[in-house]
Write a structure and sequence with these properties.
Layout lengths: L1 H21 L3 H8 L7 H11 L9 H8 L3 H25 L1
């Protein structure tokens, strides 16, 4: 009985960790793909992904991306507070460059 409880706990922890691994930090993605220093680029990317299903007029490539992956905006919504924190921590390094 105790072995079953331990396996269930391990399964729950694995599912939670896999979920958080699927949520990619947009700050890392946007800074790795962009050569210019755009402040709060990860936050801007998350906001454009969240807004793309509602308003595709200004989103450009993001709108096309969300059409292919309609489930992505809830992940961006979860990622948004993490990106705000990461962009804030990364801001002094971007300012120096």
């Amino acid at each position: 009985m105790k072995l079953v409880k331990n396996r269930m706990l391990a399964l729950k922890i694995t599912i939670i960790l896999l979920f958080f691994m699927c949520v990619g930090c947009s700050t890392l993605i946007s800074n790795a793909m962009s050569s210019s220093n755009t402040y709060y680029s990860g936050t801007k990317l998350d906001i454009s992904i969240i807004a793309a299903p509602v308003d595709c007029s200004n989103s450009g490539d993001v709108c096309e991306f969300t059409k292919g992956f309609p489930f992505i905006w809830p992940l961006a919504l979860i990622d948004l507070p993490l990106c705000i924190a990461a962009d804030t921590l990364y801001f002094p390094f971007q300012y120096r460059n």
